[in-house]
Amino acid sequence: MDANEIENLSFEAALAELEQIVRSLEQGQAPLDESIELYQRGDRLKRHCEARLKAAQARIEQIALGPDGQPQGVKPFDAGPPGAA
Q1: Cα–Cα dist 18/44, whole Å
Q2: In Å, what is the CA distance from 16 to each residue of 5, 9, 42, 64, 79?
Q3: CA geometry: angle 12, 15, 19, nearest 5 deg
Q4: Phi, psi angle pair for 78, to nearest 5°
Q5: Residue 6 in contact with residue 14, Cβ under 8 Å?
Q6: Lower CB count within 10 Å: N or C terminus of the chain?
């Protein structure tokens, strides 16, 4: 699979493959050259997942409530600083 094929993967498919690569690398059974290839593919998959999440987050909107508690429109999603929950 090349980079174009990764771009066509759904978030879920890319994440599942990334998880499989991580498990394989954690086992440490692959030869060095194969481990490097797996790592590089995993990096491309990670970047793809991050881009898909960022795009999804940009499309999320929050309902803005007025002083009376009634919906008055929408505003862009703001998750706050990383790590804030």
Answers
A1: 9
A2: 15, 11, 11, 35, 25
A3: 140
A4: -135, 105
A5: yes
A6: C
| Dihedral, CA of residue 10, residue 13, residue 19 and residue 25, to nearest 10 | -100
CA angle 6, 9, 10 (to 5 degrees): 145
Length of the chain measured in residues: 85
User: Distance (Å, rounded) from C-alpha 38 to C-alpha 44?
Assistant: 10
Which amino acid is located at 73 in the chain?
Answer: G
Tens digit of pLDDT for each residue in 31-72? 999 999 999 999 999 999 999 998 888 777 777 777 887 777
